[in-house]
Amino acid sequence: MTSRTLIILFISLNLFSNDIETISKLYEKDGPFVAGEKLIKFKPGIHFLENYDAQQSELIIAVHGWQTKGFEWVYPLINLNKETNRISFYRWKTNGCPNRATQELLNIIQSEIDNYSKISLIGHSYGGIVLAKLLDNDYSKNIEFHIVASGISGEPRLNSFCGYRPPVRTGKNVVAYQWMTQKDLDGVFKDLEIDTQIQKIEGVSAVRLPEVYKDNTLTHNWSISWLVDYLNKN
Length: 234
What we know:
disordered N terminus; seven-stranded mixed beta sheet; 7 helices; alpha/beta
């Protein structure tokens, strides 16, 4: 390996390891909206927000929703960060069908699955559709899915143009949860005739979120933060 290659590798690793730290510092200094801008500047693909460490037995992959501004993920990513897990953010183009993103994410899971004892995915809103399409796959190790505030039952455009159909059951080694907001309090769902979050899938535990979070209405974007607080308590 040449000196130039070593220098590039060293710089890359340092940028790598500073991502979650930088996001945390930006959050403390300037708030979630400024910190979130770092996330939306990522190019499409998987972004590990810290270096790999032998203590990290779990890989966490965050999958954002339609035209994210990033801010809704800042608090969750910071508070998911533990010594025993590795945080990553999957950036994808949401202005089309989720099929390509789903296939790419499956390839990522398959390439990383032997490096960890467990992989957990959290998909918010349209990102939940990406995860829903992966639920009925079989995996060689434990895969945990958290689908948050997502209309996984589908809707006419998604069904007709993208060929989307919700899965019937989960695959081998899949543990899955669906976290549904209160329809009338969620701006994405409140004007719909039916609550498209409701979809019975064998093997998926569905939970309706409360109306209030930290003395505020639990809205669409707050749902991820509520979930992370809940997971950290349990």
